Amino acid sequence: MRTEEIIEKLIRNIDVDTSAKVDEVVLNDILQVFEKSTHVKSAIPQPKNGRRIMNSTITKLAVAAVIVLVAGIGIALLNNSDNTGNVGIGESVVQEDAAILEAAKTKLEAEMKIAGQYFASGDIQGLVDILARDEYAYETKVAAANFLADIGDDSAITELERLIAEQIAEGGKNPFAAAIAAITVRIEGVVAEGTEALEPEALAVVVEGEGEKAGDELLQLVPTKSLFCVRVNNFDSAAGTMDQYLMGVSPMPIGLSMLARMQLAGLVGDPALNNINTQGNFAIFGVGLPAKADQSAPVGDIFIAALLPVSDYAKLVSENANFGEADANGISVIKVGGTVNPNKTKLAVRVGNYMVVSLVGNYDNLVSMAKPAAGAAGLGASLDANEVKAATSEPIWAYGNIQQVSQMFGPVLVGQLEKMKKQLEKMNESGQGGPPPTVMNMYFGMLDVVLNEVEFFSLCIKPQAGICNMTMNLATIPETPMAKMFGTAIPEATENKLLGYLEDGAIFNIGIRKNAAFWEEYSLSQFDFISFLADGNIPDKVIAKAEKMASEFVAAAGESGVISFSHNTESPMPFSARYVFEVKDAQRWNKTIDAAIDLGNTAGPCLAKVGIEGDYKIERGVDSYNEVSIDAAGFVMKATDPNTDYGKMIDQMYDGGIDYRFAVIDNLWLCVLGADCNTAIYDLIDEVKAGGQKEIAPEFTEGLAFIAEPDKSDFVGTVNIVRYMNMASAMAESFKDMPGATGPHIMPPIDAPSSSNIAFAGMVGNGKITVETALPKEHILEIKAAVEMMSQKMLEARQAAEAEKASKVEDANSSGEVNDANEATESSGETTSDPCSASLNLN
Amino acid sequence: MAEDTMLIWKFKCGSGEALACIYEKYKNILLKLAVSLLNETGTAEDIVHDVFVSFAQSRDKLKLRGNLRSYLATCVVNRVRNRNKAGQLRQTCDLELAESISSDLKRPEQWLIFKDGFERLNNAMATLPYEQRETIALHLQGGMKFKAIARLQDIAINTVQSRYRYGLKKLQLLLNSEVGR
Prior knowledge:
The structure holds 2 protein chains of 2 kinds. Chain A is α+β, with helices and mostly antiparallel strands. Chain A has 29 helices and 20 strands. The longest helix of chain A is centred in the C-terminal third of the chain and has 51 residues, at 777-827. Chain B has 10 helices and 1 strand. The radius of gyration of chain B is 17 Å and the shape is globular. The termini of chain B are far apart. The relative contact order of chain B is 0.12. The interface between A and B is large, with 75 and 84 residues.
């Protein structure tokens, strides 16, 4: 062991003891202070009288916001509680009376309710009081700050600033600063009063609205073979919460709900939307029609229609002056929108509790819908129970039937790709450059997989005041390779114990749990794409080797792994990464790495096709730290032609290559890459030797608090777009002086702050993959601020460049004058060594 | 993660037992850290005591998540820094006035009991420039990552790493004989 390591160990491990007697005294002292501070706090504060009532109709959505907020916090709290009771030293605390937790939860809920009431009644002072009074919990203060941010009144700023100054927990995001930023944005003109037209009744529906779950009528009405369907459950509620989410984010001065209502009003010819149940469920769908027999168009038309819930269709027709009388088939003409283009005239027909609206050209289709064939079950019948549940309960549900798309557009898409490939071939032949045509093979491959192996996809969107959750499902066709890849769920939930190794401040963090079938199939699919890219030039022997390698990796891997990818501001290589993976068989794992490196070197011709010379090297046992042997690997990456602009860019970006360091301790494989990887691997070894990180990076836990079931997911992670922008702009900056660069203004370097992350989690099973994403509003605001920062810098750079240009012109002009003057001086026969007199002469 | 989060949560809910657990779990670490930073046992004890007292009063301000160990270590460092600043000012004050900074706690005996080698190590640490000492103590005793230390000290992570390595090298020279044993 090195001396340095011995000293580290000495400092880390040297222990002290304390006198039990003094311990008791000190602890009593602390507990007394604690008791005192606890008793000072009063019970739940009561709402104050004499509130100011805000006139903005944002308040009409208040209850929605409160419910959403309480639910969000509830999820966060649940995700943070540890029901296992396995808390080590705190075990006695866990076993302590559950009443304390329950009481705290009740208190918090009561406080949240008060905050919500203040918000609902527009009581700004009440909300400010919550910020000011100590008895309110931190979480309630955050909720109040969020409400104030949504209202946008500057009277809250002083109190918010005080809280920023007082906030004591280090590192994490500061909701009070975010609230100030949001208030400032709203005051300075982005006033999205899109909720003006919302009815107060919308509030009640948020509580009661359960959708139509049993035998859902709307899903029965949407044709089975629809290409797509977008459904909005409880329109008022969904649009209202989307408005709240977009408030301060959207550049539009009008809310989404207002825009949507305007569209609906245009559709039915009634701005008041009388007899339309705006608290009901709406849908729009499209069905592909067969191509015309004369083959005048490569694909058939799409019948698009909207389904609107009506409270009384007969009344709607009789009271709406824009509705024509129903014909024998029950179809009415809506007399708006068709005056300029008769083809845009709309027709409507009643089907059950809904009105179907479409364009005049779809008369026959509407008749068919009004008189459905016996036994027609609609889209709902082709979906599984989970999908039906999502369609009927999530605020927004979008669906795309890939097989219908494949049938209708497949040949056209393939034709387009063929066309693009031929264009690339021509460009390459004529020496115009561009990517190699074989790139198109990869797209062919991807398209082929999607069109032949995916059955449908769906996307659920659940906006809330501060966060928007999106869940994407992709269902595969049975028996296909993709179905095999997504076929097996992890048998039982195994905890990923490595999440503690993820880093705060990263661009990308991911924790993976091993799903052998998935990873093996996934690796094989990647080799297929590489094979496409190489235009089938990879020998079978190499493909077989790659497949074996993938199997070996999966077999040697343990149950979990984590990867952190960060922006490194300190080195020319702008990124660094760390990997920690459990390995079952370290020897087999290392052997597979050797094989992978051998295999990587066979990919040389592929890289050469994109102008890169690559060479992998590995050296075992180059270093040792804390009695752990360290291996080094390098991916030497150089441009095949360093004199071209592209070559210079590659050389500058990779700075000769990427360095890796590996080590294995206690069946953990550690790997770091990037500049200064020696220090990084030492730190990682230290962490592992110290028993690993007991706590997960706060940013990571905060992000995942908004994911429904992170513990059951195959993979969970966070992405930070702002930090990615910072890294990308730093990279762009290093290229700006290169020949061929288009100037310094393309992407100026920024260092935009960010403390929130987009979280994601995914799981596979039963031939499906589900990926949930939580997009915090705070992160959108941070991205917006980063873009503004970038725009500002671009403007400044442009102005500086213009000023410099102007100054050069001026210099050139003035130097011309000097010469002229000198000439004049000389010609006049006067000589002077005094520059002042020269300048005087000039003047 | 779960342990500390649960402790903080319980503590925020008003559980004295959770506070006692936090105290039990971190008192030795904080005492070690404070002594390493100050090399004055009495003052270090006072600082740790004051940190816990202040912590006991701050339940409403605490975030549920966050690294408790780093947080407490940061509190100790901040108090040490304040004390050092006050010490610099106090050079012109009466000695008695300076003493009043310490805690009001009346303890019957010394709180901290040194084990073998601690004093020698501490004396060596005391010879390091404060910045190096703080970096080493926070990393090795406070369990803070270099990134977190860089944030606390408001300097680049490279500087933190340099301070750390330089400090260790000096300690290596000073403790050479002991290390060789």
